[in-house]
Design a protein that fits this description.
Layout: H1 6-22, H2 27-39, H3 41-58, H4 62-69, H5 79-108, E1 110-115, E2 122-125, E3 131-134, E4 139-144, E5 149-161, E6 170-173, E7 177-181, E8 185-191, E9 194-201, E10 203-208, E11 213-217, E12 220-225, E13 234-235, H6 238-241, E14 248-255, H7 256-264, E15 271-273, E16 282-288, H8 292-302, E17 305-309, E18 315-319
Parallel strand pairs: 5-6, 15-18
Antiparallel strand pairs: 1-4, 2-3, 3-5, 4-5, 5-8, 6-7, 7-10, 8-9, 9-12, 10-11, 12-13, 14-16, 17-18
Amino acid sequence: MKQHGADTVREQAAQWFARMQDAPRDAGLQAQLCAWQDADPRHREEYEQLARLWRAAELVPRQRLEALCRPTPVQQLPRRRLLRLAMAAAVAAVALGVGWSGWQYQRLNHQDTLQTAFGERRQVELPDGSHLALNGSTQLQVDFSAGRRHIQLQAGEVMFIVAHDSSRPFVVDTAQGSVTVTGTRFDVRLDPAATRVAVEQGSVRVQGTQASLAQLTAGQGSHIDAHGKVAAPYAVNAAAVTAWRHGKLVFDNATLADVVAEASRYRTQPLRVAPGKVAQMRLSSTFSTDDTGALLRALPSILPVAIKTHEDGSREIIAK
């Protein structure tokens, strides 16, 4: 249906411009924009005018743009000067309005899919100022709206540094439950049978699908099991838990079973530990996530164990 009226076209152009600022690489959205522009010459003209205003506004400090829009005494100004001032104020107002609405639209309404490959670590800043550190093999969906900031974690691990906004809770959902905050630093890891949460700063609410919940503060952790039940808060070393951000694996009196499980997340070849006493041996050390082979080379000199290589290429830690 074709829309009429300069104001309507201008409003549509502003909406399209804001959407393209939000998702400049969206091929589908780009195709829709081109179709809208081709439908009427006025569409393309209004959109290009907004683009020019946007580029011009970027060169002018925001405080100056706001000052241009404030009422100015004009009684003693010559007519030509008055016209120039009115035009400048109008252009500034349009540029500022489009810029502000575009920024607001992007900050409040944002959708994206983020993912990392095996062994990849990635830093992402969201439009609200929140920062995400993604560990390897991670996938998540971002869905921001005016009343809620929502993350659907589908795989992997993320360290969240959430910008405070009491009017828009920040919610991380997984298959087992959810974590809700308004502003804090915390780590969420999705394992096959549990969601693990560790808080570095601030507080979070962890809620399972079985209506159980826990309130965590700095230095505390919890997990949601496969049945959606939340464990009572327990002490965690948040710096050690999130050492992966710096490419480190930090073990503090951890069992070999836990060491193997953690190291296996960063290996393409399977790693196992023999059951029984070997699996319950304890280890305190630091290794690189990018070189888990160093862990295997060091273990026989730290503990009474040996490394056995099987025909399928997998490695097993056994008693010496």
